[in-house]
Write a structure and sequence with these properties.
The complex is a heterodimer. Chain A contains six helices and five strands. By secondary structure, chain A is of the alpha+beta class. Chain B has three domains: 46 residues, Uridine Diphospho-n-acetylenolpyruvylglucosamine Reductase, domain 2; 113 residues, Uridine Diphospho-n-acetylenolpyruvylglucosamine Reductase, domain 3; 95 residues, CO dehydrogenase flavoprotein, C-terminal domain (Enolase-like, domain 1), CATH 3.30.390.50. The chains are: A alpha+beta, B alpha+beta. One FE2/S2 (inorganic) cluster binds next to loops of chain A. The site of one FE2/S2 (inorganic) cluster has 11 residues of chain A, from loops.
Chain lengths: 191, 278
């Protein structure tokens, strides 16, 4: 999906601080338009202006990773991005991960998400959306990361309840590098 | 934690950006990757009236190796530089140090020039620039000037860059044949700012060590090689360097621990650089 405008489209004049400006993004494949003051963060624009609440907000200074989304495909912090900077760009959030085909698997989770469920890679889920969006970019560039590489990438996310072991197991599983599952069989059989 | 209000400009050209910066004076700020500035805006540590966005200027998205230098433009991200296939041959020190700059997610946005402009005393890019003897190309609406890395950094978050100038590019010398390079740092967690970072370069005649995170700016010292080997009294030389760097106690580490890291990691990287000469 190409961006709506060229990524280099200049803003002809200054966007005034006290006015709301039209911002159009392609959110998970669908063009969406909202209004934003220049100081509005992309994380808040997605949640409050577009109603896409899947993206979480934790620290608002780039450390926790909860707000990570993909901008033109690349995983980045929504809390360190202004909504006006995202104008004309493709934004992918966790809502877009589930399968969007028109067949019987419509709305089902992706293999990565299923692996998270199987391996108990989440409890409260607050960190999960961000981690999934990082992985969806990272695994495209590095399809079979070593555990060390993966843990290095995960250093950009804080999970305060589950820890990282289940996340690492889930990714190793879904990238075909580990035994399918070491969780209770009842859970796994359900898939 | 939301920023205070500001006007926002996404200029069409570098000239437009520089004109707006000159007109805006101290109330204007440029934003590149935003990975240091946005946290400061969110925490309201800075409250500019006008934000000038350099990140989408194609003119600044330049990355080229040319007449002995690797030149990195202001819109080039840390991730873009790290993924350059020839980087390991061109500037091996950058290939070693870039993975330590923040995280995968912040390198996807943060720029090399932004890190140099920001001038955090423990940041890896300023350290590499000083270690390799690089230079900073500054530009305002009227002229361009080039400042040697050794003269650019003045103190914590302070450089010789004037308010109306941008860092247009930074230039790293291409590694010479027969030179060796090594980088190591100690931080609380991978991706955190370094408590102490050490970058060593060795060529045919001398061994150099640049240290970040101890003094108020990245600092370089060189010693001659003796018969192709490091000084016999290297420990004493490193000890003297560590005391000259000084360092302060802060919430992460004591000055004494930092000096000890200079003595220990300093020796390690110098030995590594000597042994991996190409
Ligand atoms: C969680 C996290 C961890 C991090 N860890 C590290 C780390 O370990 N090591 C490290 O070095 N950094 C680290 N950083 C900061 C690094 O990611 C930033 O990218 C870098 O410090 C600034 O580059 P930027 O492009 O993001 O600049 P911005 O944030 O856009 O700008 C920073 C400052 O430089 C000025 N500036 C930027 N570009 C220019 C230019 N071309 N000309 C003139 N002025 C300019 C701005 O006005 C501003 O004052 C971390 C950041 C985060 C969020
Ligand atoms: S909310 Fe963006 S990184 Fe924590
Ligand atoms: S699952 Fe709760 S923070 Fe990670």
């Amino acid at each position: 999906m190409p961006p709506l405008k060229s990524a280099a489209t200049p803003v002809a004049s200054v966007l005034a601080a006290d006015a709301r400006h039209t911002v159009t993004v392609v959110l998970n494949g669908t063009p969406r338009t909202g209004q934003a003051h220049p100081r509005l963060l992309l994380s808040d624009f997605l949640r409050h202006e577009l109603g896409a609440h899947g993206t979480r907000v934790g620290c608002e200074h780039g450390v926790c990773g909860a707000c990570t989304v993909r901008i033109d495909g690349v995983a980045q912090r929504a809390c360190l991005t202004l909504a006006v900077q995202a104008d004309g760009r493709r934004i992918d959030t966790v809502e877009g991960l589930s399968q969007s085909n028109q067949g019987p698997t419509e709305g089902r989770m992706t293999a990565l998400q299923e692996a998270f469920r199987r391996h108990h890679a989440l409890q409260c889920g607050f960190c999960t959306a961000g981690i999934l969006m990082s992985l969806s970019d990272y695994l495209g560039r590095n399809p079979k990361p070593t555990e060390e590489e993966l843990r290095d990438m995960l250093s950009g996310h804080l999970c305060r309840c589950t820890g990282y072991a289940g996340i690492v197991r889930a990714v190793m599983d879904v990238t075909g590098q580990a035994a399918a599952c070491d969780t209770r069989s009842g859970e796994a059989a359900h898939v | 934690m939301k920023p205070a209000s500001f006007d926002y400009l996404r200029p069409a050209t570098v000239a437009d950006a520089l004109a707006a910066l000159a007109a805006g004076g101290d109330d204007a700020r440029v934003i590149a990757g935003g990975q240091s500035l946005m946290p400061m805006l969110n925490m309201r540590l800075v409250q500019p009236r006008l934000l000038i966005d350099l990140s989408r200027l194609e003119e600044l998205r330049t990355l080229k190796a040319d007449s002995g230098w690797l030149s990195v433009g202001a819109a080039v991200t840390q991730a873009e530089l790290l993924s350059r296939p020839t980087l390991r041959d061109e500037v091996p020190l950058l290939a070693a140090a870039l993975p330590w700059v923040g995280h995968f997610q912040t390198r996807n946005r943060g720029t090399v020039c932004g890190s140099v402009a920001h001038a955090d005393p423990s940041a890896e890019m300023p350290l590499c620039l000083v270690a390799t003897g690089g230079a900073v190309v500054l530009r305002n609406a009227k002229r361009r000037r080039t400042v040697a890395a050794a003269d650019f950094f003045v103190g914590p978050l302070t450089t010789v860059k004037a308010a109306d100038e941008i860092v247009e590019s930074v230039r790293f010398p291409l590694a010479a044949a027969g030179s060796g390079h090594a980088f190591r740092e100690v931080s609380m967690r991978h991706g955190d700012f370094a408590i102490t970072a050490c970058a060593a370069t060795v060529d045919g005649t001398q061994a150099s060590l640049a240290v970040g995170g101890v003094a108020d700016r990245p600092t370089l010292r060189s010693w001659p090689l003796v018969g192709g080997a490091l000084l016999s009294d290297l420990d004493a030389a490193l000890n003297a360097f560590a005391w000259d760097l000084g360092g302060d106690d802060d919430q992460h580490a004591t000055a004494r621990y930092r000096r000890d890291l200079v003595r220990r990691i300093g020796r390690t990287v110098l030995e590594e650089a000597l042994s991996c000469r190409r």
